[in-house]
C-alpha cells in the first residue's frame, strides 16, 4: 500500500484512446497553457536594451555588410514615414500608415527571407519592399498614384503596394484575407518543381487580424493541406485603438500555433537579431517540413494606426514617449553595430542626411508627375476580351470628352493632370 | 413598366398554385429533355464532371478543392472519380471553412494555378464572399493588371427541395452586381459543359451557379458538345425556342418552366420566344433587345427574390434602350416570393415561379384573359 501511494498517478498506464495517442488519465484536471509548467510562452531574445548579447544567446550568422544593410533600411523607414505622414496632413495624399517602432520586426524578418520568397503583407511592411530594392521613387509613385505607379496603376490606396518583381502581393484592405491566401500561394509553390523546397510564402498580420476567422482558417489549412507558409504575427499591442489585452484572453498569438499543429516561436520583435535568427530558423523548418510555421514578434506600435487615427485618444502620450526611449529597436541595433565597430556617430549623421535629401527629391518629383492616362479607369477590370459594359462606359466618356474636353474650362484644366491629357481615349 | 410589388408576386404565385395538382418543380425529376432524337445524352452532373476532367487533362495547373470533393466524390457527386484519375494533389479535400478554402483557392490563383473551388452550396459561400468579391474580383484591377486571378467558384445555387431559407437562396443578383467577376447560371448539360470549360480557361474569377434540382436531369448532347474542345462563349444567351409573340427570359431551372410555359401557350396559338440567359455577367442584353423588338413583349423569370434582381436589371436596361419604343405591354418580372423560403412543402411550392404562373404572366402581357 505504502509503495503504491508514493507512485505518481501518471506512472500507472491506462492506455490511450483507440483513435489517438491521448493517454487515459483518472485525474480530473483542466489546463490553460501550452507550456508544461503552466507558465507563459517565453520570448526569444539575443540583444539586450543596450545592444549587448544576453547571456546564453548566440549571435546569428551576420557580417558587417549585411548588418549595415539591415540597419540602413531600418533608418530609412521613419524618415519616409515622417515625410509622407506630413504630406498626407497637407492633403496631398489621402492616407498613410507609419511603421514607427516596428522597424526591427519588419526588417529582421524581411532579411531572413530569400529575395524570391512570396510576401503577403498586411499593410505596414513597406520595409520588406525597401529591403528587396524598392526605390523611393517607386514608394512615392504608388502613394501618389502617378504615371510611374506600375504596381497598382493608381487603383490602390497609398501604402497598399504590390510588386511582381519583388514577389510582394498587392495589399488587400479587408483585414486578414491574405492569411488563407498565403496558404494557397504556398500550395502553388509546392506544386512548382522549380520552387518546391526552395521558396515559402511569408504572410504578415497583426495580433488584431489574428482575431479574424481568416487567421484560424489559414493556420488550419497550412497544416492540414501542408504548404510552406510562414506566419509572421506583428504583435504591436494595438488593433487601431483596441489594446492586445482586450484582443485576446489567452497567451497571445503564439499559444494558438500548437492548436493547429504548427511549429511556433515567440520573439522579441524589437530585437532585430532575434527576429532575424527566429525567422531564418522558421523558414528552414517551413521548407523542410513543407508546413506552416508561426512566429509571433512582440513589439509596440509607436505611431498612430494610420492617418485616420489619433492614438492619444486612447493611450497616454507619456506611455508612447517612454516606450520610444526605453525600447527603441533602431537605437538598440545601432548600439550593437557601434560595439562591433561597424557604425559610428559620423556615419549616422551623414547617412540620415543623405536619405532625407533623397526622399525629399523623390517626393518633389512624384508630386509633379502627371497621373496615369485617363483610360486607365477602364483597363484591367477583366483579363482577355473586354466585355461590352466596359467598352460602353469608355465610349460614353469618349463622347463627353469630345463634346466638352476642349471647350469647358473645368474639364480642360482637369485633363491636364493626366498623362496624354485624354488624347488616347479620343483616338481609341 | 410594370414594377409589381414583391407581395404581388407572392399573391400571383399563390393564385397559380391553386390551379394545379402537382407542383411542376417536381416534374423536372421525371422528365428529361430528349425531345429530339440524339445519339448522345448526358445528365447535368455528368456534363460538369466531364468538363472538369477534360480541363484537368488539358492543363496541369487546374485542380479542385472543397469539402469532401475527393474521397466522398462531392456532396452531390459532381467530382465523382476525379480523385482516382488525378490523385490527391489535384483533388483536394479541405477542412470545413469556406472563407479558408476560398482564400486558399484565391491565393493559389494569384500564384498562377487554376483552382476550381467547390462550395457544397452557394448558401454556405456567404462565409467566403469577401474572398470572392474583394480579393478574387478586384485584385486584377487593383494590381494594375499585374496579378490575374483565374479561379472558378462553383456549386449548387438557389432553392432545392425542402431545405428551408438558409439553403434556398439565389445569388445571381449578388455576384452579378460586381465588376471584375464573371457570373454564369447554366441550364442544360450542354450549357454546363461548354460554359464550365470556358470558365476554367477564362483569365478572370468566375462564379458558376449550378442548380441541385438539375443535376440528375438528362439532356441530349450534340456531336460538337461531346468534343473535348467544346466551349461556349461566356456572356452569350441562347434562344432555346423561337417565337414571335412574346419574349420569356429565364436562367437556370426557370428555363425548364419557361419552355413548358411556351408549350402551353402554343396550344392557344401563342408563339413564345424563350431566351436562356446562360450568363448573368456580362449580361447578353443585345439578344434580349433583338427579341423584344421582334415580339414587343417581355417577361423575365427567375428563382431569386424580386427586389434588385436579375429581372429588375433586365427591365431597367430595356427601358433605357431603344427597345423601350418597341414594347406594347409593361415588362413583368416573375420571381420568387419576397420572403425567406419556407420549409413546409406547400408553402415552399408557393414561394417559387412554376409553369402555370409563367403562362399567366405571358397572357397578361398579351392582354389575354386567363
From TrEMBL, chain A:
Q: Which InterPro entries match?
A: Alpha-ketoacid_DH_E1_comp, DH_E1, THDP-binding
Please, which domain of life does this record's source organism belong to?
Answer: Eukaryota
Q: Report the GO molecular function annotations.
A: branched-chain 2-oxo acid dehydrogenase activity
Q: What is its EC number?
A: 1.2.4.4
**Domain annotation Dehydrogenase E1 component: ranges:** 72-373
Q: Which SUPFAM superfamilies match?
A: Thiamin diphosphate-binding fold (THDP-binding)
Give the UniProt keywords, A-Z.
Answer: Oxidoreductase, Thiamine pyrophosphate
- Give yes or no: UniProt keyword DNA repair: no
Q: Which Gene3D superfamilies match?
A: 3.40.50.970
Spell out the reaction equation it catalyses. Answer: N(6)-[(R)-lipoyl]-L-lysyl-[protein] + 3-methyl-2-oxobutanoate + H(+) = N(6)-[(R)-S(8)-2-methylpropanoyldihydrolipoyl]-L-lysyl-[protein] + CO2
Q: What class of enzyme is it?
A: oxidoreductase
Query: Which family does the similarity line name?
Result: Belongs to the BCKDHA family.
Instruction: Show the PANTHER family listed in the entry.
Output: 2-OXOISOVALERATE DEHYDROGENASE SUBUNIT ALPHA, MITOCHONDRIAL (PTHR43380)
This molecule's function is given as: The branched-chain alpha-keto dehydrogenase complex catalyzes the overall conversion of alpha-keto acids to acyl-CoA and CO(2). It contains multiple copies of three enzymatic components: branched-chain alpha-keto acid decarboxylase (E1), lipoamide acyltransferase (E2) and lipoamide dehydrogenase (E3).
Q: What is this protein called?
A: 2-oxoisovalerate dehydrogenase subunit alpha
UniProtKB/TrEMBL annotation, chain B:
Primary place of residence?
A: mitochondrion
Q: Needs which cofactor?
A: thiamine diphosphate
Domain Transketolase-like pyrimidine-binding span(s) in chain numbering: 42-217
Keyword annotations? Metal-binding, Mitochondrion, Oxidoreductase, Potassium, Pyruvate, Thiamine pyrophosphate, Transit peptide
Query: At the top level of its lineage, which domain of life is listed?
Result: Eukaryota
Q: Which Pfam families does this entry report, sorted A to Z? A: Transket_pyr, Transketolase_C
> What is this enzyme's catalytic activity, as reactions?
N(6)-[(R)-lipoyl]-L-lysyl-[protein] + pyruvate + H(+) = N(6)-[(R)-S(8)-acetyldihydrolipoyl]-L-lysyl-[protein] + CO2
Keyword Metal-binding included in the entry's annotation: yes
Task: Extract the coiled-coil ranges from the record.
Answer: none
Q: What is this protein called?
A: Pyruvate dehydrogenase E1 component subunit beta
Amino acid at each position: 500500500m505504502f509503495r503504491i501511494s508514493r507512485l505518481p498517478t501518471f506512472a500507472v498506464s491506462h492506455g490511450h484512446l483507440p483513435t489517438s495517442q491521448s493517454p487515459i488519465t483518472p485525474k480530473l484536471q483542466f489546463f490553460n497553457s501550452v507550456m508544461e509548467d503552466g507558465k507563459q510562452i517565453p520570448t526569444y531574445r539575443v540583444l539586450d536594451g543596450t545592444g549587448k548579447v544576453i547571456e546564453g544567446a548566440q549571435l546569428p550568422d551576420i557580417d558587417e555588410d549585411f548588418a549595415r544593410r539591415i540597419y540602413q533600411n531600418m533608418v530609412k523607414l521613419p524618415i519616409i514615414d515622417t515625410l509622407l505622414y506630413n504630406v498626407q496632413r497637407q492633403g496631398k495624399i489621402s492616407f498613410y500608415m507609419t511603421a514607427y517602432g516596428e522597424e526591427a520586426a519588419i526588417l529582421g524578418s524581411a532579411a531572413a527571407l530569400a529575395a524570391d520568397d512570396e510576401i503577403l503583407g498586411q499593410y505596414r511592411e513597406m520595409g520588406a519592399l525597401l529591403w528587396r530594392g524598392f526605390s523611393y521613387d517607386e514608394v512615392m509613385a504608388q502613394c501618389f498614384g502617378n504615371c510611374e505607379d506600375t504596381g497598382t496603376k493608381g487603383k490602390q490606396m497609398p501604402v497598399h503596394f504590390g510588386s511582381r518583381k519583388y514577389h510582394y502581393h498587392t495589399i488587400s484592405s479587408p483585414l486578414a484575407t491574405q492569411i488563407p491566401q498565403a496558404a494557397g500561394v504556398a500550395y502553388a509553390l509546392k506544386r512548382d518543381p522549380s520552387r518546391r523546397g526552395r521558396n515559402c510564402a511569408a504572410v504578415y498580420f497583426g495580433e488584431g487580424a489574428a482575431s479574424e476567422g481568416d487567421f484560424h482558417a489559414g493556420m488550419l489549412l497550412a497544416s492540414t493541406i501542408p504548404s510552406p507558409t510562414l506566419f509572421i504575427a506583428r504583435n504591436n499591442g494595438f488593433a487601431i485603438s483596441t489594446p492586445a489585452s482586450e484582443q485576446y484572453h489567452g497567451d497571445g498569438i503564439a499559444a494558438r500555433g500548437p492548436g493547429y499543429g504548427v511549429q511556433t516561436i515567440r520573439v522579441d520583435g524589437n530585437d532585430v537579431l532575434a527576429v532575424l535568427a527566429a525567422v531564418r530558423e522558421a523558414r528552414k523548418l517551413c521548407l523542410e517540413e513543407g508546413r506552416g510555421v508561426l512566429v509571433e514578434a512582440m513589439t509596440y506600435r509607436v505611431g498612430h494606426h494610420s492617418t485616420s487615427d489619433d492614438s492619444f485618444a486612447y493611450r497616454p502620450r507619456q506611455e508612447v514617449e517612454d516606450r520610444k526611449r526605453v525600447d527603441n529597436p533602431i537605437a538598440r541595433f545601432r548600439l550593437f553595430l557601434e560595439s562591433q565597430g561597424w557604425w559610428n556617430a559620423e556615419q549616422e549623421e551623414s547617412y540620415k542626411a543623405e536619405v532625407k535629401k533623397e526622399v525629399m527629391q523623390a517626393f518633389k518629383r512624384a508630386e509633379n508627375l502627371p497621373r496615369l492616362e485617363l483610360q486607365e479607369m477602364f483597363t484591367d477590370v477583366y483579363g482577355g476580351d473586354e466585355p461590352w459594359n466596359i467598352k460602353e462606359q469608355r465610349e460614353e466618356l469618349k463622347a463627353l470628352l469630345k463634346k466638352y474636353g476642349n471647350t469647358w474650362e473645368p474639364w480642360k484644366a482637369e485633363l491636364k493632370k493626366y498623362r496624354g491629357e485624354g488624347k488616347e481615349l479620343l483616338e481609341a | 413598366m410594370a414594377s409589381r410589388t414583391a407581395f404581388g408576386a407572392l399573391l400571383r404565385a399563390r393564385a397559380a398554385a391553386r390551379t394545379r395538382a402537382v407542383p411542376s418543380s417536381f416534374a423536372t425529376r421525371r422528365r428529361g429533355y430528349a425531345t429530339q432524337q440524339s445519339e448522345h445524352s448526358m445528365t447535368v452532373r455528368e456534363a460538369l464532371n466531364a468538363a472538369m476532367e477534360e480541363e484537368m487533362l488539358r492543363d496541369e495547373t487546374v485542380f479542385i478543392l472543397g469539402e469532401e470533393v475527393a474521397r466522398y466524390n462531392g456532396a452531390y457527386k459532381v467530382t465523382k472519380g476525379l480523385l482516382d484519375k488525378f490523385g490527391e494533389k489535384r483533388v483536394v479535400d479541405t477542412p470545413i471553412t469556406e472563407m479558408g478554402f476560398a482564400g486558399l483557392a484565391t491565393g493559389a490563383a494569384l500564384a498562377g494555378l487554376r483552382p476550381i473551388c467547390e462550395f457544397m452550396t452557394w448558401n454556405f459561400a456567404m462565409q467566403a464572399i469577401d474572398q470572392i468579391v474583394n480579393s478574387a474580383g478586384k485584385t486584377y484591377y487593383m494590381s494594375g493588371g499585374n496579378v490575374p486571378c483565374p479561379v472558378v467558384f462553383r456549386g449548387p445555387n438557389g432553392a432545392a427541395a425542402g431545405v428551408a431559407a438558409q439553403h434556398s437562396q439565389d445569388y445571381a443578383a449578388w455576384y452579378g452586381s460586381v465588376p471584375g467577376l464573371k457570373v454564369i447560371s447554366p441550364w442544360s448539360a450542354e450549357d454546363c459543359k461548354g460554359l464550365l470549360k470556358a470558365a476554367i480557361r477564362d483569365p478572370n474569377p468566375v462564379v458558376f451557379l449550378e442548380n441541385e434540382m438539375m443535376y440528375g436531369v438528362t439532356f441530349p448532347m450534340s456531336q460538337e458538345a461531346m468534343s473535348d474542345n467544346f466551349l461556349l462563349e461566356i456572356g452569350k444567351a441562347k434562344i432555346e425556342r423561337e417565337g414571335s409573340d412574346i419574349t420569356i427570359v429565364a436562367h437556370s431551372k426557370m428555363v425548364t418552366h419557361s419552355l413548358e410555359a411556351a408549350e402551353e401557350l402554343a396550344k392557344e396559338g401563342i408563339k413564345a420566344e424563350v431566351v436562356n440567359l446562360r450568363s448573368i455577367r456580362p449580361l447578353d442584353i443585345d439578344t434580349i433587345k433583338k427579341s423584344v423588338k421582334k415580339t414587343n413583349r417581355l417577361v423575365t423569370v427567375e428563382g431569386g427574390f424580386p427586389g434588385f434582381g436579375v429581372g429588375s436589371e433586365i427591365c431597367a436596361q430595356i427601358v433605357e434602350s431603344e427597345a423601350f419604343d418597341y414594347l406594347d405591354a409593361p415588362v413583368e418580372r416573375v420571381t420568387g416570393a419576397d420572403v425567406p423560403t419556407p420549409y413546409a412543402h406547400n408553402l415552399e411550392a408557393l414561394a417559387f415561379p412554376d409553369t402555370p404562373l409563367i403562362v399567366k404572366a405571358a397572357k397578361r402581357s398579351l392582354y389575354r384573359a386567363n
